[in-house]
Write a structure and sequence with these properties.
heterotrimer; A alpha/beta; B alpha/beta; C mainly alpha; B: alpha/beta; Rossmann fold; eight-stranded mixed beta sheet; globular; C: MetI-like fold; 12 helices; membrane (chain C); MetI-like_sf (chain C)
Chain lengths: 333, 388, 302
């Protein structure tokens, strides 16, 4: 099956007075219809920026300096603003962390849904209204036929985020980019939203890129996961493998440092140090100064994504030509 | 019946049907760990905020005053050298409790005893304040951006006049920085030169600089990435062991709380609904809300159990539901729950747990909850809303 | 070391990138130096009555056919060298402007800090006063203050303190702007956790305001102060033009413009145009510097 989104060797740069910062470097992945790709990483790893680059909303002075973004085989990274604006909405839906930034407080949610649908789909006013109510029902808003004429401020936070989801999906885009869609919500609401997103992606065959720092959300929702570190993909693979049996030393450390809910451990596994700033990314593998398995090659040569079996990891331990090979512990979780 | 609830929930002034039978939780408070004076005891602590609109607007709109009951009668004790955690969703009042305890807010009702002394009276004594410090959530806001780290760390030393000698003060700052895993040379730098985790270490060094015995930690790791969160949690546990500290730990993250707590209190709408030793709480949560919270945490084993998310949303603390505040969302609610506010009393079956639930008291809380460690195989991580 | 840090800073970088700003800075520097050093570098002393020669009155600028090289910008009706008069006048204008701004900054920052930090009824009272004052144009307030002082004091006494009256009158009209800005920044800062940390250890509100809040709310104050300097100079010129400003024995730029105004239509344009141009150059350069500072300190616009 042809992927809906195909990102190839994406590079995003921020020119500053102290030289150009490379915020994303060689990011490649694809998402197929109905598939949810989770993108995780610590703050500053570049996960949100990847989403912003795809929907064409990079904050200036950031710019795409290399690579390609293909939506259904068509390049969208070099389109003029006006064309890109039309593609957002029609072909790409976006869901952000704060629902209030997406909703216009001056219009009822119904008007916003109807306008979005009529802009992108060929619908009469009556049809659009019926569909708007249908969407509100689908995202689980009770008494949708009445609530369709309410204003955004009349909804609670969780309900608003549902409206945003309806708004992102109502034009039936082929791709949805969701950036921390549940972070602003309480635990009990998060679960409801996650279930909703997952169901809609399945039913509509939408490709979804889910950016979040929350491993639990990823585990429940995503089919595949990309772990990002310092603007690069460290590891990518099926969610089960990446979460339970990560191969890259960074993913391994990351998963181990998550406090377990089912037991108390006296000393949590921790990765010493911190992710480098964009202005000070070390040569070779960006993780090398913190890596417990580091060897000479890591400090000079930047690793590409290599097959590890179930996942692909940017780590020289998995190159048969390296002088050091992955220890058993890494190979099997 | 639905109308009945709606009316009660939105009526003004806020109905308090339960006022007829005020809970006397303090009488049945958690049993003291020993006969020793607890480091801290909160007795029927309450804090109301007046969130009314300005007088003129209120008159025009014919509104009454709006009182937000952020904390509404909370009692607990923290034995010396232990950690009590308060968990709950946003707006449950846990952070308000923390601020009441350190004196940033004055309680509307109730009192705080610090080492047996009423804090309200002892507040004036700088010696009492020296023994109590606070660590905050946001490492980017908790350090004055225009101060050098050494001055930030030394602020409490100066404020309490712990040492007048400059050399000794420098020595002490260097030692504190080393203690939290920073270099003494870092004292010359400004906060913006550090990462979030390092800033949180500076915050801890500042809190430790007055040699406190008791630390109030308000979501100290929730703004941090998960690998850094592990560093800070390890550091805090290590410091507790070495310095014999007592912690009041505020968090919304159950997994984090499990790692650090001796006892855990679950808050909902300004009240404690369950208070139990950490292991007991996770193995046998009793209150329906506690159970719902645990159920809501995403499961890494995706093929695992069917998740039943708790329906509805947290009601507004300005007009809380009558009786048990959880009853509109509770699967076990009946007429009594709507009318009568449950008291925090020892639970049947797990007497070391105190729980405010009529259903538990009456023994109609049904099939026992499957403890976390007896769930179907597959690792579980509670990372919901954890910064990763 | 300190200089090296300054030259390397983002602020200096954004300064160098903007030619308009560099030009304004140069103009402002020339104005300030010319004014401050007037007694030493001005070609004549316009206040030395003994050196005035009525025969030299109404000399046009030096480039005119009948102009004289010793009076580069011509002379006025008394035979005073215009260039020297402008330099001395700018000195007065700048002195009044800077002092007035310092006064309103001090007043406004203090009030804003107290209102923002203490909040409640103190805040309500102070901000209502500010609101009321803001409904009056600043020139009206200055006229009012000046009128009250004139009515209250005998003429000689008034002349002696006229300079302070003008400074006070102009300064008092600008404080609400400072107070509002500082108050809103203070409201943000006082809820930040570093302030809470200081409160937890029991530091007094005054101590916290001075050591924690104040240094963190000064950025916007600098911008407003710079922009207000231009306003203050204009206000002073207006007052002097109306004849209620500084005493005529110490003519400011405004006084010079007023005096010259009488001769504008009889052909002696230089007596009013040059002081006017000096005023425009000074105010414009200061304002442009202020605009740049505002943009440079605002991270959102960078």
């Amino acid at each position: 099956m042809a992927p809906i989104l195909d990102v190839r060797d994406l590079r995003v740069e921020f020119p500053t007075r102290r030289g150009t910062l490379t915020a994303l470097d060689g990011v490649s992945f694809a998402i197929e219809p109905g598939e949810v790709l989770g993108v995780v990483g610590e703050s500053g790893a570049g996960k949100s920026m990847t989403g912003a680059a795809i929907i064409g909303l990079l904050e200036p002075p950031g710019r795409i300096a290399g690579g390609q973004i293909l939506l259904n085989g068509r390049r969208i990274d070099n389109l003029p603003h006006e064309q890109m604006r039309r593609i957002r909405g029609r072909e790409i839906g976006a869901i952000f962390q704060d629902p209030l930034t997406t909703l216009n407080p001056l219009y009822t949610v119904g008007d916003q849904l109807i306008e979005t649908m009529q802009t992108h789909l060929d619908l009469s006013g009556g049809e659009a209204r019926q569909r708007a109510i249908g969407w509100l029902e689908m995202v689980g808003i009770p008494a949708a036929a009445q609530r369709v004429d309410s204003y955004p401020h009349e909804f609670s936070g969780g309900m608003r985020q549902r409206v945003v989801i309806a708004l992102a999906l109502c034009a039936e885009p082929k791709l949805v980019v969701a950036d921390e869609p549940t972070t602003a919500l309480d635990v009990s609401i998060q679960a409801q939203i996650i279930a909703l997103l997952k169901r809609l992606a399945r039913e509509k065959g939408t490709a979804m890129m889910l950016v979040t720092h929350d491993m639990g959300v990823i585990a429940e929702t995503a089919d595949r996961v990309a772990v990002m570190y310092a603007g690069r993909i460290a590891e990518i693979g099926p969610v089960r493998e990446v979460v339970k049996d990560p191969r890259h030393p960074y993913s391994t450390g990351l998963m181990a440092s998550i406090p377990p809910l089912d037991r108390r451990v006296e000393h949590l596994a921790q990765i010493d140090g911190a992710m480098p700033r964009l202005s000070a990314i070390p040569p070779g593998c960006a993780f090398n100064p913190r890596c417990p398995h580091v060897f000479d090659r890591c400090r000079v040569e930047r690793p590409e994504l290599l097959e590890t079996g179930a996942t692909r990891a940017a780590c020289w331990l998995y190159d048969p030509a390296s002088e050091k090979q992955a220890p058993e512990a890494l190979r099997h979780g | 019946m639905a109308d009945d609830i709606a009316m009660r929930a939105s009526g003004a002034p806020p109905p308090h049907a339960s006022d007829a039978s005020p809970p006397r939780a303090s009488g049945a408070s958690p049993p003291r760990a020993s006969g020793a004076t607890p480091m801290l005891a909160a007795e029927e602590l309450a804090k109301y905020f007046d969130v009314s609109r300005p007088l003129l607007q209120r008159l025009l709109a014919r509104e009454g005053r709006r009182i937000l009951r952020a904390v509404d009668g909370v009692s607990f004790e923290i034995p010396k050298g232990t950690t009590l955690s308060l968990v709950g969703e946003s707006g449950c009042g846990k952070s308000t409790v923390a601020r009441l305890v350190v004196g940033l807010y004055q309680p509307t009702r109730g009192r705080v005893l610090f080492d047996g002394q009423d804090l309200e009276k002892a507040r004036a004594a700088s010696e009492q304040r020296r023994r109590m410090q606070m660590i905050f959530q946001d490492p980017y806001a908790s350090l004055n951006p225009r101060w050098r780290v050494r001055d930030i760390v030394a602020e409490p030393i100066r404020a309490f006049g712990l040492t007048r000698d400059n050399a000794a003060q420098r020595e002490r700052v260097a030692q504190l920085l080393a203690q939290v895993g920073l270099s003494p040379l870092d004292g010359e730098k400004y906060p913006h030169e550090f990462s979030g985790g390092q800033r949180q270490r500076i915050s801890i060094a500042r809190a430790l600089s007055s040699n406190p015995e008791f630390l109030v930690c308000d979501e100290p790791t929730s703004a941090l990435d998960v690998s850094v969160q592990a560093q800070i949690l390890n550091l805090m546990k290590d410091l507790q062991r070495r310095l014999g500290l007592t912690y009041l730990f505020i968090s919304h993250n159950l997994a984090v709380v499990r790692q650090i707590s001796d006892r855990i209190g679950v808050m909902y709408l300004g009240r404690l609904v369950e208070l139990a030793p950490a292991e007991t709480l996770f193995n046998a949560p009793r209150h329906p809300y506690t159970r719902a919270l645990m159920e809501a945490i995403p499961d890494l084993d995706m093929t695992g159990r069917q998740r039943v998310p708790v329906g509805g949303e947290v009601p507004s603390p300005i007009s809380p539901p009558s009786g048990c505040p959880f009853h509109p969302r509770c699967p076990l609610a009946n007429h009594r729950c709507k009318a009568e506010r449950p008291a925090l009393i020892p639970a049947r079956g797990t007497p070391e747990t105190v729980v405010a639930c009529h259903a538990v008291e009456e023994g109609r809380d049904g099939a026992a909850f499957t403890p976390m460690d007896q769930r179907p195989p597959g690792p579980r991580i509670g990372t919901t809303a954890t910064a990763l | 070391m300190a200089l090296a840090r300054l030259l390397d800073s983002d602020l200096f970088w954004s300064f160098r990138r903007s030619p308009v700003t560099v030009l304004s800075a140069l103009v402002a520097l020339v104005c300030v130096l010319g004014a401050a050093l007037a007694p030493w570098i001005a070609p004549h002393n316009p206040f030395d009555l003994a050196s005035l020669n009525l025969g030299d009155a109404f000399k046009p600028p030096a480039w005119d056919e009948i102009g004289e090289a010793s009076y580069p910008l011509g002379t006025d009706d008394q035979g005073r060298d215009m260039l020297s008069a402008i330099m001395y006048g700018a000195r007065i204008s700048l002195l009044v402007g800077v002092c007035a701004v310092l006064f309103s900054t001090l007043l406004g920052v203090t009030i804003g800090l107290v209102a923002g930090y203490l909040g409640g009824s103190v805040d309500g009272l102070l901000m209502r006063i500010a609101d009321i004052q803001l409904t009056f144009p600043s020139i009206l307030i200055a006229l009012l203050v000046d009128g009250i002082v004139r009515a209250a004091l005998p003429r000689e006494a008034h002349d002696q303190i006229a300079l302070f009256v003008v400074i006070f009158a102009i300064g008092i009209s600008a404080w609400p702007q400072f107070a509002r800005t500082v108050r809103s920044s203070t409201l943000v800062e006082r809820n930040k956790e570093y302030v809470l940390a200081a409160r937890v250890i029991g530091l007094s509100p005054l101590h916290i305001m001075a050591t924690h809040v104040l240094p963190n709310v000064l950025g916007p104050v600098l911008v407003i102060a710079t922009l207000n300097l231009g306003n203050a100079i204009i206000t002073e010129a207006t007052l002097s033009f109306l004849g209620v400003g500084v005493p005529p024995t110490h003519p400011s730029l405004g006084t010079l413009i007023r005096i010259g105004n009488d001769f504008l239509f009889s052909g002696e344009w230089w007596i009013t145009i040059f002081p006017g141009a000096a005023l425009v150059a000074m105010v414009l350069s200061v304002n442009l510097l202020g605009d740049w500072l505002r943009d440079a300190l605002n991270p959102k616009l960078r």
